């Protein structure tokens, strides 16, 4: 799905249907140390995508982080998306953008990014928002938060059934997000999620991010 990295979902013939989608912490104090952690995490197993999700920082901080981290992602064949900002995604030649309901339209992002890039849309617990995003030309829709999370204040807590319904009515990939761990991710994959988007359970794992990636891939591969 993306030029610089492989965001193909499992339906593309890979042996594992549901794949891991990583999201950076909202704040990265030591960029070089994070880049080393990222490199070891991506070397540890299959990851479809990394989303740079810095919050409450200036554009130059996002630019610096993207220029340091995108090459690491691409070295492992991992797509690199920017959160919120289609304009920066274009400027930085990222593989796409993730848009929340307040981050501008798919049409606007597509006019900036063109068709070779991935545009994802937050759809909370709403099939209506997902249909709207799909009709607008989104490349994936994201539902969540499925489990309690400390990473983001969320009002929406969908049931996993929404993933099954979505999988039955369309081939447009779905991403599940919110409090996902190696212990609970399989329920979402079994329900139909094409990707599980994860932040805290990887970057805050006391065993280190590489062991967390291994644990997720072991859980997602298990029957
Ligand atoms: C894959 C994925 N899904 C949902 C979100 C949340 O986006 P949004 O609602 O715009 O909230 P912020 O992440 O911008 O705080 C996401 N970033 N990625
Ligand atoms: C960005 C976002 N959107 C809904 S929940 C969430 C946080 C995901 O992070 P974590 O995997 O740590 O719960
Ligand atoms: Mg957003």
UniProtKB/TrEMBL annotation:
Domain of life: Bacteria
Domain (Thiamine phosphate synthase/TenI): residue spans on this chain: 20-202
Residues annotated as binding 2-[(2R,5Z)-2-carboxy-4-methylthiazol-5(2H)-ylidene]ethyl phosphate: 149-151, 179
Keyword DNA damage on entry: no
EC number: 2.5.1.3
CDD domains the record matches: TMP_TenI
GO molecular-function terms, A-Z: magnesium ion binding; thiamine-phosphate diphosphorylase activity
Summary of the function given for this chain in its UniProt record: Condenses 4-methyl-5-(beta-hydroxyethyl)thiazole monophosphate (THZ-P) and 2-methyl-4-amino-5-hydroxymethyl pyrimidine pyrophosphate (HMP-PP) to form thiamine monophosphate (TMP).
Protein name: Thiamine-phosphate synthase
Annotated source species: Eilatimonas milleporae
Encoding gene, per UniProt annotation: thiE
């Amino acid at each position: 799905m993306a030029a610089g990295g492989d965001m193909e979902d499992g339906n593309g013939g890979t042996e594992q249907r549901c794949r891991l989608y990583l999201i950076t912490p909202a704040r990265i104090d030591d960029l070089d140390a994070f880049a080393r952690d990222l490199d070891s995490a991506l070397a540890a197993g299959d990851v479809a995508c990394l989303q740079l999700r810095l919050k409450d920082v200036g554009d130059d901080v996002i630019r610096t982080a993207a220029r340091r981290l995108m090459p690491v992602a691409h070295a492992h064949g991992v797509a690199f998306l920017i959160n919120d900002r289609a304009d920066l995604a274009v400027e930085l030649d990222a593989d796409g953008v993730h848009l929340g309901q307040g981050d501008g339209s798919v049409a606007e992002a597509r006019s900036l990014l063109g068709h070779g890039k991935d545009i994802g849309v937050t759809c909370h617990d709403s099939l209506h928002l997902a249909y709207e995003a799909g009709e607008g030309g989104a490349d994936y829709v994201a539902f969540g938060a499925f489990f309690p999370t400390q990473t983001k204040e969320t009002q929406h807590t969908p049931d996993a059934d929404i993933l099954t319904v979505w999988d039955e009515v369309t081939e447009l990939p779905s991403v599940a997000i919110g409090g996902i761990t190696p212990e609970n991710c399989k329920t979402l994959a079994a329900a139909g999620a094409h990707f599980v988007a994860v932040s805290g359970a990887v970057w805050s794992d006391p065993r280190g991010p590489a062991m967390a990636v291994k644990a997720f891939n072991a859980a997602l591969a298990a029957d």
